[in-house]
Amino acid sequence: MNYTEFMNAMLCEIRGQVDAQVRTELYTVTKNNGTRRTGILFKQEDSNLAPTIYLEEFYQKYLKGQQVPDLADSICSIYQEIRVKKTCDCQNLFDFNHVKEHIVYKLIRRDANEELLKKIPYEPFLDLAVVYYIQIDNTRFGSAAIQIRNEHLRYWRVEKEEIRRLAEKNTPRIYPVQIRQIVRFMYVATNEQCSLGAAVMRYPDFRKKVRGMIRGDFYILPSSIHEVILVPESFGLEPERMQEMVKEINQTGVAPEEVLSDSVYYFDGEEIRIVAK
User: Fold this and answer.
1) pLDDT mean over 45-49
2) Which of 31, 52, 174, 240 could bridge across to 39 with cysteines, CB 3.0–4.6 Å?
């Protein structure tokens, strides 16, 4: 069966497995860079928890031979574990004092997210946007996070500057930087969780620390929203050649929703700027 048929078959099978008070439906979400993902949304009448479990990876398992009833059983088991754990207590989102220590930022592509950026607080950075979210928990099912939207600021009665200040303080603490050498002249920079790690290039003193480590100015290649590659200027690669590398990686090796930019950035010891786009 094709993907649409698979989604409907999974929904039907799951509805036969869950309790009557649990409402299930297909739910499509617009993610980063305008990509769309569809999953099963679970909503229980007496709970403020409404997780969505996406179906793309389960369809790949179906194509490899697993049966719909077995896959539906796996999804129901995941939902039950999430429900028992109560990872996301949405009531606490209304309490700014509760969430303020969990406000962090990430980097996304600005030109591919224009509609989203109309609805959320953000700060321009190069050709990117710094956007803010509430980090709730990290589980084996992924990170539970809430995008901060303009209506959140109105409800909390706080200004964007306060959100920015908290995120600048919290992000390096919650997501410490990690730098490793991959070949003689290249390094990868991310965070310890290897998730949304491209944001480390905005950490205080990060660029000067890297410059001291590699003993000179360097280029930053945005290989995805999760990491960046650092190349010393002394290695002699032309920015245009590095941009070709970035474009090729984005087109062939990165999921569309995880692409950050096709640009190449350069740090000269004072500021970071775009040198190829």
Assistant:
1) 72
2) 52
Q: Which residue has the tokens 């950035």?
A: 265
Instruction: Please answer whether residues 127 and 260 qualify as being in contact, where contact means their C-beta atoms are separated by less than 8 angstroms.
Output: no
What are the sequence ranges of the domains in the chain? Answer: 3-86, 91-174, 177-276
- Crossing angle of helices 56-63 and 3-17, in 10° steps, is 100
With beta carbons less than 8 A apart as the criterion, state whether 83 and 105 touch.
no
- Asked if pLDDT for residue 86 goes beyond 70, the answer is no
Burial class, 213, CB count within 10 angstroms (exposed 0-12 / middle 13-18 / buried 19+): middle
Q: How many residues does the chain have?
A: 277
Instruction: Determine if residue 230 is left, alpha or beta; phi over 0 gives left, psi from -120 to 50 gives alpha, anything else beta.
Output: beta
**CATH of the domain spanning 3-86:** 3.30.160
The 10s digit of each residue's pLDDT in 212-234 is 888 899 999 999 999 999 999 99
State both tokens at 137.
């928990």
The whole-number average pLDDT for the span 206-213 is 87
Separation of CA 190 from chain center: 13
Render pLDDT for 155-177 as a digit per residue (tens, 0 to 9): 999 999 999 999 999 999 999 99
Spatial CA neighbour of 133 closest among 103, 155, 92: 103
Query: Helix and strand tally (H, E) in the chain?
Result: 9, 13
The DSSP bridge pattern shows strands 218-224 and 264-267 to be antiparallel
| Residue found by looking up tokens 């740090």 in the block | 267
- Which of these, 126, 143, 133, lies nearest to 207 by C-alpha position? 126
Write down the residue that tokens 């989102």 correspond to. Answer: 93
